[in-house]
Every structure is written in structure tokens, then in C-alpha cells.
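#dry-run=false #mode=assembly
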Amino acid sequence: MAEVKLKNVKKQYENGFVAVHDFNLEIKDKEFIVLVGPSGCGKSTTLRMIAGLEDISGGEISIGENVVNDMEPKDRDIAMVFQNYALYPHMSVYENIAFGLRLRRLPNDEIHKKVCEAAEILGITELLGRKPKQLSGGQRQRVAIGRAIVRVPKVFLMDEPLSNLDAKLRNQMRAEIILLRKKIQTTFVYVTHDQTEAMTLGDRIVIMKDGFVMQVGTPQELFNHPANLFVAGFIGTPQMNFFDAKLTKEGNGYIAEVCGAKIEVPDYICEKLDARSSVPEKVILGARPENLLIRPKGSQNTIKARMKVTEMMGSEMHIHADYGGDKDVILRVQTADMDEEAQVELMARSEFEFGIRQRTINLFDPEDGRNLAVENAVAVPKKAENAPVAEDIGKKKKDKKTKK
Amino acid sequence: MSENKKFRSKSGKERFTRILIYIFLSVLCIIWLIPFIYLVFQAFRGESRSMVTYIIPKEWSFDNFIFLSTKTDFWHWYLNTLIIALFNAVLQSVIVLCVAYALSRMRFKGRKFLMNLMLVLGMFPGFLSMIATYFILKLFGLTSENSVPGLILIYAASSGMGYYIAKGFFDTIPKSLDEAARIDGASRARVFFRIIMPMAKPIIIYTIMMAFIAPWGDFMYASLITFGHEEAYNVAVGLYKWLDKEHISNYFTIFCAGGLLVSVPITALFMALQKYYVEGVTGGAVKG
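#status=ok
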């Protein structure tokens, strides 16, 4: 139970590669922080630096009152759960859980009590006599968690703990981690590349790319107001659609025009735009697939699209289409809003028109990818230039398809 | 039908190849076994002690062993070798396992250079440094009658270079186990002894076996360092003495009996631990 502070933390390897640049974060007591990002973004390195398994090249990490830069992992009062469980194969489940307590020279009866308590919380009491190789993946992960919680650490670190489990077990364990968190009330730092885990578990999420922090915020903030094009594209499936738009001032507000359709910019964005010294004329408009709405033929301010593929997911339908020539767009339609006939009719259509739910849009600067309405937004790192830039998106998807 | 025929012809061809392979292996086996069988037969030959041109003795007896035990220094040499082998088994195993673990787990400046250097140095035959080693040991008074500690020192000193197979084995043990233990509160040494060692049984046994066996067969260093001091000989030097011109006609069967006795502890150890030996070699080979 402690705060964790990372100030300008940097990790540079001997060959000059910088894995983490200038990482700043204050994790509150009992907060659940999730570090998320694609492979190689530096999230695990950051976690390992907090754990003391990696040296820090620059900056400062403190846990509670103590600066722990040069402290051994064992002295930091942390516990960690690894992706591959890292159970000691020659010890029984009981001994695995008791190992940390034995090293702290606790009396045997106290160790026994604590091990039994931890096993009880995780529902593994009947497994205590077994060896790790006799357990299933989910059971092993429970033992690994048991080994971590038994010491009641100040900070609980988890490095992709669910990645090795199958989809069903992963969902189950995710729910169990939420319950566990309620029971043991401590500070959690959780690393994952799975955005569902990040969104469901985290009080706050840190999104990383190429060693840079892209955005820190609650799941809602990240989903509704992504700080840049990378975050916008990373969070949410199917990913956000990006449109090239022309921004013009009209009266007190702004209008974004996409392929002839005029979309009124929400007031809160207008205020931010007004506060800027200059407002770009060309912007990228981001709208999530569920915020693109199919309109009747001939409606005003709609964009014409050609149907390519429809995917029936049961409760919703994903419509892949292209507009304005060769630019791809994905719509997500709730099937509960339509009767079966309407669904069949929609799937049979070759063309349709869609509008954009005005209040949900985000506007991004095409130069650096920053969200125009988010203060202190971080630009997408240069390496990521090939990531979501509106004009490229359609082309890239086509390239992939032709390669296949 | 045609498929059946095809299948049959294929299996016939395979069988033929197999038979050829087995014949070849059997011949090799016999060639390898002949010297050993010869040694055993000669050790039990009773009619004379000189070298003869036939293999199967005309008269079987234990005289050679009795002579060996009562009228020669053989058991003294045997004890010397056993002491050296036991010390070497302990010292070399500790050194090799520590070096291998450090090179497998720790990252420090010059690690790669050190590993390459040891690999290259290991390619030179040991006797290149024999004269220098002899003078160094002489300086410390560890030659001639004090050869036993001298030999222990020589074998143990160079043992770190044989880290390669053990390092390969340690590389296959996930690093996250070390990390988990360090977070649990273990020091590096405790991680090594409490977590890694129990998992490395095959490679420990392999290393101990290699370290124990090596001194039994060493002739060059032992003969140089013991130089003329019979009481300090090891079995290889002592037995070889009986093969020179003066002795061979009276000691050949004695030599064979001694050779047989030397092979007993090594063979017994090998047979008892061969399961681990194979695991050690193959385990080490995964990433070695």
C-alpha cells in the first residue's frame, strides 16, 4: 500500500537503444494502473524497472517515501506475477507460496496461516500438496498470484499474467483479478497488450509507443478523447475511422466538411480551437464505427459509400465499405435496432449513405497527430508516421489485401 | 493392390538398410570391445606374465591381482588418484557450475570477450603450458613427492574453462524463475542454491562425473609433475612404467589387472548415473 512515483525515468541499453524515454507517472495509493501498448513499446521494461529487475539509466523511481533506484528487488517490498508463472518446479504449491515468507524467517505457524489464507482467497486450498507440473494453466497462474499476495506487498506488479491462458480462462481470470483487487486493496501496476484487459481492469491506463507515453487517463478519457491518432487507433475494436476534413469557422462555431457532408463541431472542441493561436484548415476527423449512422437515401450531410463486406456478429453487424473512391470505412450497426427483414435488406445493399454522430467526433492535427481538443496532447513519435494518417489508411489496407 | 506392393517394397528396402546399419554398428562394437576383452582375459591369465599372441588364457587365475596387491605400490597409486579425483570432483564442479551460472545469468562488461577467450584457449592442447606450470608448481613446492595437491590444483585451476555445457543447460532454465525468487527476497547466492541447483541435477551429476573421471586417465601432467617419485604416481603413470622394455616381460598381465581395477569405479559411476549423463549432455545442448 504505497504511492509509486516515476520521474523522468529512462532506460537506455548499452547498444544505445532507448527503450523508455522520459517516463513520468504518479501512481496513487491503491490505484490500479495498466500499462498498455504494442510489442516493444517499453511497457514491460518500465514494470521491470519498478521491480528492480532492470537498471535505470536516468530519472528516479520512488515507492512510498523511499527512492528505490539502487535498491535490490527484495528490499522494495513488491510482488510480481510473471507471464510464464515462474513457479519453482521442484517445490510444492505450498512451498512455492511459502518461499518468500521463509526467506523473511517468519515462524512456521504464521507461514502456515498466511499460506492457507492466500490459498483460500484464490480457491487453491486443495492444490497445496501438488507440484506445479500437475496443475493446469489457470491453476498455475492462481498459485503465482498466491505467491505474490501472501507477503502483502506495497505494490503488486503483473506482467501480462493472462497472456498464456486460453480465451475463456482469460475472461474468467480477468474477473477474478477484479475481485482479488477488491479483497486485497493495494497498488497494482499491470502490463498488457490487450486493450480489453486494460479497459476493464484499469483505474487509469498508460498507453505507450516506442518508449514514449502517449496518454495517461481513465478508460473513458482514452476512449472518448484520445490524445493523438495512435491512441485513437489503438483503443477500440474495430478501430476508429479517420476522415480528411476541412475545418471552417461559421458564426461562433466550426464546421468540419468531409466529402461534402458538413458536421458541426461540438462546442467543447470549438472552445479549445478558439483558444489556439492558429487553427489548421485541414484536419483529420476521427469517428468510431458505432458513431457512423446509416441514413435514408437523399438525407442531408451524408457520405455515400459502397458496401464491400458485412460481418454479422450476432448483436451487431460490422459493415466494411469504401467512400470517396478508395478510402475504407467501418460501421458498427446494432442489430437490435432493426428487424430481421431490415437486416437482410441492409446486407443486400450495394450502396448506402451514412452520417456522423456529431457530438462524438475528435479532430486531429494532420501534422503531428495530436487531438486539437486535448490539452498537453503528445505528438505521435516520428517512427510512427506510417501509423494512422487518414490518407494512408485506405491504401494500406488495400496493400495488405493484394499481398494476400 | 498396387499401393500395397509399393508399401511392401518400401518396407523391404527399409529393412535391408536397417540390417546393413545394424551389421555396421555390430562390427564397430566388436572392434571397440576387443581391447577391453583382451585386457580382461590377460588380467586373469595364469600361465605367464609376459606378452603373448593369443587372447584366451590357457590357465585362469587371480595371481596377477594378488601380486598387484602384495608386491607393488599399486594401491598407493590408486589412493593418490582417488584422492585427486574426489577433490577434483568437488572443486571442479563448484567452479564450473558457478562460472556457468554467472555467464548464463549476469551481464557485465567483458562477458562476451571472456567467453570467447576461454573458448579459444580451450582449443589449444593443455600440454603447451606444461613446462610453465611445472616451474610454477615447483616454486610452491608442489611437485615430486607433493604432487597430489599439485595435481589437484592444476585440474581445478583450469576447470572454469569447461563452463560451456553447463551454461547451455542454465540457459534453458527460464530467467523469470531467478527474478521471481529475487523479488521473493532471495539473494543471488540463495537463488543459485535454492532454486537453480535443485533444477540442475542432471548437469551437476554430469559435471561431477566428468571431474571425477578426468584424473584417472591423465598421464602427461602426472608423469611430469611426479617425475621419478613413485610414491606420488597416479595409476596411469604407475601402470605405464610396467610397459617399458625392462618390465614388460614380467609385468604385462599385472598391468592388465591394474587397468581392470582402474576401470571399476569409473564404470560403476557411469552405469549408475548414465541417465543423468544423457540428460545433462542433451539438456546442455539445447542452447549450448
